[in-house]
Specification:
By secondary structure, the protein is an alpha/beta fold. The chain has two domains: about 90 residues, no CATH class; about 140 residues, Rossmann fold (3-Layer(aba) Sandwich), CATH 3.40.50. About 55% of the residues lie in helices and about 15% in strands. It contains nine helices and five strands; from the N terminus they run ααααααβαβαββαβ. Helix 9 links the parallel strand 4 and strand 5. The longest helix has about 35 residues.
């Protein structure tokens, strides 16, 4: 009983700290959006100030002050990336509100592509699909007679290349906005189906229906129990002898960082 109380209190404090951090980040991003000259000006001024302080033999306080501003400037540039890209605020949403989060991130084809793979233009979206498609062909051994399901298909980034290589391709996702752009990208393919999921899991899909189920760079966005639910349902919809393929970005790699 006492343990539950302390755990609940800890989670409440942790949640409040996270909300405060998110609000602070949004405030900084909002400031940069209004004054786009701030990152470049701050960096240039700090570099000049440091150079002048050192060359003029200024007091150590001023040298350290200019150096501190220069060191801090990369953080300003970091906040400026989403601010300049007009990424919508997510501070009012919880992580588990998957549909709302991804709908908010995909209000245009440009934003949908950027949210899916960091490449807003179509050419970048296609390039980003090359490696996961090759992995699926090599490791999951996609065959022409396979009926394939992708969990978290987004804009159909992988489905566009994979669908012509299998019998049928089904894309499942919770985001209606992502589906809109997936439909546009995949409209010429005749062996595809898009299924909008109403909740966590694959409840809309029939058991023993697929030869291959895969999910690429999706589970990292989900809470732990929701990952388990998708995995449990993936085995349910697989046929006997079917294959399950899952990957995620290595957070220690350059791409993950």
């Amino acid at each position: 009983m006492l343990e539950d109380f302390f755990n609940g209190s800890f989670r409440e404090v942790e949640s409040q700290q996270m909300r405060t951090k998110l609000i602070s980040r949004e405030a900084v991003s909002s400031l940069i959006r209004k004054h786009r000259w701030v990152p470049a000006t701050a960096t240039f001024a700090a570099a000049c100030g440091l150079a002048l302080s050192v060359s003029a033999g200024a007091h150590l306080f001023w040298v350290l002050g200019a150096a501190a501003v220069l060191v801090f400037s990369p953080y300003v540039w970091g906040y400026s990336v989403p601010a300049f890209n007009d990424v919508p605020s997510q501070t009012h949403l919880r992580r588990s509100q998957y549909a709302e989060v991804w709908d908010a991130l995909a209000t245009s084809p440009w934003q949908a592509g950027a949210a899916a793979c960091g490449a807003p233009e179509e050419s970048g979206v296609r390039r980003s699909a090359a490696e996961p498609v090759n992995n699926l062909l090599e490791l999951a051994r996609v065959a022409s007679q396979d009926e394939v399901l992708e969990i978290g298909c987004g804009v159909g980034r992988i489905g566009l290349d994979l669908a012509p290589r299998c019998r049928t391709w089904t894309g499942a996702d919770v985001s209606g906005n992502m589906f809109t752009y997936a439909s546009e990208r995949l409209h010429e393919l005749r062996n595809i189906r898009l299924v909008k999921l109403s909740c966590v899991g694959l409840g809309e899909l029939v058991s023993n229906s697929y030869d291959l189920v895969y999910s690429t760079n999706v589970l990292a966005h989900l809470d732990e129990m929701d990952r388990w639910r998708y995995l449990k349902d993936a085995f349910r919809v697989l046929r006997a002898g079917g294959r399950l393929f899952i990957d995620n970005v290595d957070l220690e790699s350059d791409a993950g960082w």
